[in-house]
User: What shape does this take?
Amino acid sequence: MQSIQNAKHIFQIFADYLSQYFKTRLAYRADFLGDLISNLVSELINLVFIVVVFTHVPLMKDWTRDEIIFIYGFFLVPYALFSMFFGFWDFNERYIIRGEMDRILTRPIHNLAQVCLESIAPDRIFGVISGLIIMGYAAIQLDLSFTWYDPFLFVGLAISGALIYGGVYTAISAISFFSDSRTGITPMIYNIQQYGRYPVDVYNKVIRFVLTYILPFAFVGVYPAAYFLRKETWYTYAAMTPVMGVIFFTIGVVVWNWGVSKYRGAGS
Amino acid sequence: MRKLYMELIRMRFLTMLAYRVNYYSGIIIYGINIGAYFFLWSAIYGGQQQLGGLTVEQMTSYVAIAWMSRAFYFNNIDMEIAQDVREGKVAIEMIRPYNYLSVKTAQAFGEGIFRFLFFAGPGIFLISLVIPFRFPASGEDWGLYLISLMFAFLINTQINLVTGLLTFFLLRNDGMMRAKRVVVDLLSGLVLPISFFPGWAQTAMGFLPFQAVNYYPSLIFTGAISTGRAWELIGLQVAWVLIIMIPILFLWRKARHRLVVQGG
Assistant: This one.
């Protein structure tokens, strides 16, 4: 009962933050619009890369153009969900160096939830929409057929993917609790994630291993997407996606809580 | 006056040196990006000898040098100008006895030199150990590349000045500046050599300055074109420098008359 009450409470606060968010964003309409456009442009640019490359070659390894486009469209959905709720990529600077973390710790809800709430970016929902449009296009081109439970699987796999990202970033942000100097790890991981957008078999063994077990970004793109593309060789990996999501998110939260217990405050 | 700008370049260089830890991770980030494209292109080429006028060896060199050139020409002076405008610092800058835009350019240059020496240099060395990489054969080719890279820096800085100056009119344009960054990466040939695009797109891009920012110097570096053609490309770069001067001077004139200082 207590935990249900708690969840309801967090949900309510979430809604309040959401309405505040839109008020502040719409104060500068041109900037808000510019942000939307810049997100859309960066999503489209990868698509341009794929489309242009495939005007020169029929296949990339064994994958056709529309299969690669489908994987990319799929990737955009969990990625957008993740960036909506885990927008604290500047955690170190914003919370540790400026001492804002002390304030967070005085708040009644769980500190990770509070940090997520403060950096929430609901306009990233458009990423989900563009992902769905891109997938839809590719699915029509490929003449894919879906069963009645596929939409549910899709939602589950997309959420699992977002949890993997969330877990990895939470764990990495938690490093700031132990060392308040800038590590530069966050942008590094941010750049590695683009590897997950393409079939892992184009990479060498080492990178494939890293993308599967250490920084499992392949579970955010190619593995789950392979299920919908009916690539049976990858079914086991696709089925592992929710497991990886739970494992990595748990790791993230555990490291975070451990970090909070070690946190001494650094700001002024 | 020259002494003043030399000092500004030096100051920015030293500031960068003080924060150099950031750059160790920066080298790895560029390595990650170059690696991603290296594998992608290897898979794309498959058995093909040549695509878009480049062999697979020229392609991997192109990818590596395109990112390394970016290390030199890339800067955030538009974001810096936007911040100065937002915080009202620009009012102080304007009464100082120098030209604000030249100061920003000098600072960007100091940053560029720093990245060139401590970032692109070691970066290209490390990369040449891992992936097949071809350096220019002669001193002449090196010279052509460096001249072209210099103009690439100027053009990119000018583009940043234009978007930065727009802050005077829009007050907040972070979104636009971010979008510009991705667009420049695509249209400059960083992610995809211009020769890969379909004919109509290449024609359209011919009317835009972006390929002068990366495609020209990188193409010269790979040795895929003749010396004569290389000089032609540098000529085009000079033309673009002069053309983009016009909107900058116009915007700067306008901006000074309608400056709204928001902060203090």
Notes: The mean pLDDT of chain A is 87. The CA atoms of residues 96 and 180 of chain A lie 7 Å apart. Residues 150-178 of chain A form the longest helix (29 residues). Chain A touches chain B at residues 28, 30-38, 41-42, 45, 48-49, 52-53, 55-57, 59-61, 181-185, 187-188, 191-192, 194-195, 198, 202-204, 207 (CB under 8 Å).
